[in-house]
Amino acid sequence: MGWTALHTQINEFTPFSQLASHDGAPASVLFSNGLSTWYSWLGFAAVWVMTPLSSEIIYLDTDYCQNPNLKSPNNPCWPPRISVRPGIILILQVLLGIAAVTVAIAGIAWFHKPSGCSGDPTSIAAVAAIMGHPDVEWDFEGLGADITMEELKELLKDRKYKLGHYRLANGTERYGITPASQGDGAELAPRGNLNTSIPQRRWGFSFLRGWKNSALLIDGLFFCFLLGILGAITAYVKAVNNSSLAKVFEARTIGRRLLFALLGSLTASNWGRLGRESQTLSPYMRLSQPNAGPTSTILLKRRTLPFTAFFTMLRNQHFTAATIAFTSLLSELLVVTLSGIPYRPGQLRQEFLLCGIATFAILALMLAVLALASTWRRFFLPHLPRKPDSVAAVMTYVSGSSMNADFEGLEGLPVAQRDGQIKKFGKRYGYGLVRRGDGGVRWAVDEVQGTGEAARKFSSESSTSSTRAT
User: In this structure, are residues 360 and 226 in contact, taking their beta carbons and an 8 Å threshold?
Assistant: First the structure.
């Protein structure tokens, strides 16, 4: 859990570190980090493998005595003796070394963070605060309302951006994302328009078009995976050593707990993904409702630990995300209960039954919450043509917004001070279709003017367009 938090933070801050370099970075860093965070993935893989392996370090040895009890073949020597497996310990030491090197590299990279803006790239307000450069806004504002991420990557493939200071036409100096050709502190220079004509790609399966359809397919596969584990555990607990699964591990010293712990780790990883996704989407759910305040929407920061995410989502009344965070927390416990199920020599039957009942209850709850999460995303979430899980995707929703001008001077403040200043504005925000200057429309997060007719119009237009798009 702790390493997942570190791994997530590394991937969130890396794009800004690359943009802060002297020559800037290609627009592709706004979509994903690519191989630039290879060290984090290496450490993540090492720690992930350590979890199931750790279940095989200590075991109860019932085959150590000189005069075994032949009448009890499962426990010939009693009481059992706690023993360790030196080979597993050696492997874990190597994996711990890899994780330690990764932490050292991450510590060095931490000192290369950009110092001119708030160290919080996970909220909508944080991206809007560094989105004030007219040329950068022009690149993102003139796009089609329903442009996909693949089409956006194609349009921006020749662009380069950087983090730096720039002066607006009125002489105001700001800090944010600028074209890489723009000198630090230089005045704005005219730049060519972005060519928005791209070839339409029709390959692929139609039912996988759109990120919501892909997410629904992944949820379906995960649901079948959980259902399979539940069925296997039910049969195993019922038959114990007479089940077909028990016969697979017959006469094996290693593998009983390893397989079950591995299944638990896979489950926990998927719930961590669902937890981060629900935190990313929850602000847009609230913004689609009339008169949303900034605290639970544009200022909402994504938490990396399910424990902190649960209380944050609950306090901001994002109950679906809070439920998913709580289930993600239970998935960490599932690793322990699953690894305690294989009935092995020296194990108490009470422990076996307790782990079996706890696993059954957790898996049943997971199936219900997974169905809830899929329904929430599919039918209640507003139309989001691009999943807002990258810097580039969020930039498409805040380009041209009045927030970019309102947050002038806030980009360099600490997170708490910046959020406090935004709250003092007393403004309300919404998500939906807004008119561009050229008469076109785009999906955007922006200030809602007024609390009556204007807010209702913002909401109704978005609802109608969302129905059409779906």
Answer: no
Quick one: how many helices (H) and strands (E) in the chain?
A: 16, 7
CA 99 to chain centre: 21
Tokens of 342: 């294989």
Q: How many CB atoms lie within 10 A of CB 55?
A: 24
Q: Which amino acid is at 293?
A: G
CB burial of residue 124 (10 Å; 0-12, 13-18, 19+): buried
pLDDT of residue 350: 79
Contacts of 91 (CB under 8 A, 6+ apart): 53
Beta pairing partners, 187? 167
Which residues does 457 contact at the CB level (< 8 Å), separation at least 6? none
Strand segments, DSSP code E, in 119-267 are 160-167, 173-179
Taking the C-alpha atoms of residue 141 and residue 138, their distance in angstroms, rounded to an integer, is 5
Q: How far apart are CA 205 and CA 362, in angstroms?
A: 35
Torsion angle of alpha carbons 423, 426, 427, 430, nearest 10°? 60
Q: Is residue 400 left, alpha or beta, with left meaning phi > 0 and alpha meaning psi from -120 to 50?
A: left
Tell me the pLDDT tens digit for each residue of 344-357: 666 677 777 888 89
Residue type, 212: K
Tokens 């105001």, residue?
172
Contact 287/300 with Cβ under 8 angstroms?
A: no
Checking 317-321 for CB contacts under 8 A at 24+ apart, the result is 318/278, 318/279, 318/282, 318/285, 318/286, 320/278, 320/282, 320/372, 320/373, 320/376, 321/275, 321/278, 321/279, 321/281, 321/282
Per the listing, tokens 């893989």 go with 45
**Interacting residues of 375 by C-beta distance below 8 A, sequence separation 6+:** none
102-142 pLDDT, tens digit per residue, is 888 877 776 666 655 555 567 899 999 888 888 888 888 77
Report how far residue 193's alpha carbon sits from residue 139's, in angstroms, rounded to the nearest whole number.
8
